[in-house]
Amino acid sequence: MQQSDLLDVFRALANENRQDILFRVFSDKEAHSVGEIAERMGIAQSTASEHLTILRKAGILQSEKVDRQVRYTVNKKAVNEVLSMLQHWLTCC
């Protein structure tokens, strides 16, 4: 992971609604569709879709098409890389 990737993660997480989606919806460690996320958050599907796209492009979420539905999960590998980079940065000097 490069510094620009890390900046993308920070930008994605700068929005409180995206933080809320991560902590309220994905805390169960399950895959969720846009419709499920929108319903849980009480927002429009288009709004949920925008937030999920930003989180996916930043590498925080990954998506998989199941039948006609896209399911989102946390990209654990990418999140662990970000945390590892932050830990290294905080302890290197």
UniProtKB/TrEMBL annotation:
PROSITE patterns: HTH_ARSR_2 (PS50987). It comes from the Bacteria. Residues 1-93 form the HTH arsR-type domain. The keyword Membrane does not apply. Keywords: DNA-binding, Transcription, Transcription regulation. Pfam families: HTH_20. Transmembrane segments: none annotated. PANTHER family: TRANSCRIPTIONAL REGULATOR, ARSR FAMILY, TRANSCRIPTIONAL REPRESSOR SDPR. NCBIfam families: HTH_metalloreg. This is Helix-turn-helix domain-containing protein.
